[in-house]
Amino acid sequence: MKRRFIGASAFALAVALGAQAAQADVTLLFWPGPESDAMQAVIDAFNEGPGQELGFEVDQLLFSRQGFFDKELSDLAAGSTEFDLALVTTYTLGRYAPFLEPLDQYLDPGVADHFAPVALDSLSADGSIYGIPTDISVHFAFYRTDLIDELMNNPDWQARYSEIAAEHLGAARDPVDPGDWTWDDYIATALFFTQSINPDAPTQFGSALQLQNLIFNIMIWQSTLVSNGGNWMDADGTITIDSDAARRGLEIYQTIIDAGATPPGSLSYEFAEANAAFGTGRAATTLQWNAAFNIVNDPDEYPETGGLVGIAPMPAGPEGHRTHSHSLGIGMNAASENKDQAGQFLNYLASIEAQEIYAAAGGTPAVPSILEGMSDQRPEFPLIGQFAADYGFVINGGTAAYAVPVYEVLAQEFSGYWSGQTDIDTALSQAASGMAEAMAQ
Amino acid sequence: MSRKRDPGPIGWTWRWLLFVVAALILNLPVVFTVFTSFKTNADINASPPVWLFAPTLQHYAEVLTTPTLNFPRYLMNSFVLAAAGTAIALVLAVPAAYAIVRMKFGGGTIVPIVLMLRTLPLVIFAIPFYFMFQWLGLLDTRLGLSIIAAIINLPFALLFAIAMVRDLPYEIEEAARVDGAGIGMLLWRIVIPLGRPMLISIAILSFIYAWNEFLFGLILTTRSATPVTVGATLFATSFGIRWGPTSAAMVLSLLPPMLVGLVCFRYLTRALTAGAIKG
Amino acid sequence: MHRRREAWWLIAPLAIFMVVWLGFPFLSNLYYSLSDVTFETLSSPTLTGFGNFADAAGSAAFWQSLWFSLRFAVIATTAQIIIALTLAIALRPLLERYRFLLAVLILPLMISPALMGIMYKLMLNEFVGVVPQYLALFGLYPNLLGPDWVVTVVIAIEVLQWTPFALLLLLTALQAIPEELLDAAYVDGAKPRDQVRRIVLPLMGPAIAITAFIRFIDSFRVFDHIYVLTGGGPGTLTTSSSIFIYRAFFQQGRLGFAIASSLILMAFSLLLLWATMRYVLKGART
After folding, report:
1. Interface test with A, best of B77, B81, B223 (most A CBs within 10 A)
2. Do the domain assignments include residue B39?
3. Total tally of structural domains belonging to chain A
4. At a CB cut-off of 8 Å and minimum separation 6, what does C154 contact?
5. Is residue B253 part of a domain?
């Protein structure tokens, strides 16, 4: 009896060990989230329409967002044939390019002309295009419309605002419209809405910065660097991170941190935590990705702020408003065994028709005409297009193979400074030497 | 059990108290996860957090029905790889432990080598295993992951198998030897039955270790063999972690090892309370 | 001679398994550690000698991460053993009478540390998390993931999750102590405290040693929950050696360096194993 049980278990295990799942003709690798939900709508439309005529189907493969890039890199570098098309991003492009197929020969002439040039550039390397853009990302200064309206109209608040600015920033100033914020205006607003500084403030904190040791948080911070005239490196490739502009950028953050105007937990914040701080009504403003708008402005997700969220360009420095801009796109695995079919799908994906489906299903396509046209459903869309065109930058070296390692170095050094582990001089000089090391690899 | 050592009413009371406190503190994350899985998104995002709310099954429905995922399959994958990984590790470790303890053979070399495995950061094996599995056709297979699970469990299984054999009464084995039992018979008829409580403990813990493995589940699978640990993170999106479905997925992933634990505990505690496993 | 051949047969499956599955990974890692290799040159690394080892040995960040792991493992292991031993001795009668209670206590083991880390992100959130909410009841408002508390918090998470592991093993060992010994002591009028000190602890020595040993090794290698929760930060405050190596490997693409660092780590572990093995395996000769 017992022996038979063990035998049967062993047999069942042996059968179970061999099970396999089915897969379609062309496989597209993406990550879970609104982007892949939107992509599924495009794929469904393709499989029901053009795919029928062309005689093949596309399906989507999702890898966990936790460790996505590590997994994707392993697969591409080892020549996996599990997927033919894969997500590429501005910041990973240089690293993945050796394992990707340049798309130029697969694309019909003119098929990509309607994309924003900044998006196409950010997915190109060495004169070749490696990805059809799907989503464009920029940063906004998020604020509460109810609170800013009150500030702009209430003389008592304005007087207090002026006092706080005089005390903490050295000169009295008046509140200005968020669209015209400079960094000093932003700091003053953040301090004004912080209860420890202004006991009458309606929110506990004036800002919610994302300070975790994470590459995406450096992308947000970079607006302070570039709007103050700085960059990773100059046009010749000389590293310029240890500069006055970077110092000013770090200090803008540090002023807000030291004043207690961002929650103490900010040191471990990323995208979602900043949304929680802002969306629960604890912070009056935040510097955040455009993707957050639809979340914090949704009353079902955040009843406190739903319908009350305003967006402005990132605050201005001497160089004006600047925002980091990057794109997601779909590239082709160089090891793919179905390149022609994969190329045919990319031509479809690049079409206005497909991009419209993508936008309607929740994506943020890098096509200005579509972004303009959807302003009723997605109020932030026209601003994304406008800000990307007017203020968008790709940091020097931001598409190179060393982009991610450099972001890593900066994330580690700067989060070390913000958490008080190192001083600003050490952080900047170590950032510079770390960058040099990462670029030498 | 010995009646002489019955703790008495006071003894029982404080023991219950201690148990409840320990269970609550140790299980706080689990309880919290269960609660979260039944909350609506607005309740999850409520500040301060709420403990009373109208429960919803929406997250469970989503986890089990999202077409791009195959959650039952992930559960099955994890179950198979954990069971097979545990079985392989035990089959290899128990005989070796017997040789090491009773025959004083190989202990000095093989034990440190196997234990060393456990001290290395696993990530450095990711690429070599990837290439090897690619070559052998084991990528994205349950068999491949079972082998990984066995490798992960071997150091632990070997160490405890050694402890188990060491604690067995030698006289019974000697007697069996004198009666002419072969080495296989000795293991099957004497070592395994007598060591059962320890074997079951090792098996439960190996199963759990294998069940919890993440890194190789991520790197070495694509769609067929994805384990539930990786599957549950598919609700961590580029727009942040979707707590509702993630916690529902975690609760679902908790059930199989819990079941295994409960089933095994019956044998474990029965064997123990029957007493006399050693003298 | 006959016994020797039998011993071979018993060891052989394990030995063959190890050679088959770990031979190639180990040799290729050895080669990588001596080479200039990135993801682009996985199949064509250039042999460069011991440069990676020199880089690793000269990297302050590497030693810093090693120091963190060591502190983390020592504190976490000590706490786990003390708590688990206390619970095992105190709750034994209860857990023997009501078997399923043990299952309740080992529940935390059944959630993957990677997923646990994700859940703690929510639990520790200062606005929507329960832990700050409870602490606030006591008038405490610590910044749990800030520089002052983060190390304590990641250690506490490790202890909460893995104490049940130690509990299960120590309870098993405790139950293997012959009742007669305890009963005899009881009849002799020994107080429970003396019973524990004079009989239980000495008899459980080897079990405690093995459990502590396993927990130490695992805690030393800690990766998942810290990586998910803090990414090794703020700065490098919670960067364990596994996190350091993982980052060098994937994010920086310095494969040779990452592997060389691991091998240095392995050399240290070997020393440790060699030093403690004697005690851990003591009973093997009885």
Report:
1. B223
2. no
3. 2
4. C72, C222, C225, C226, C229, C230, C238
5. yes
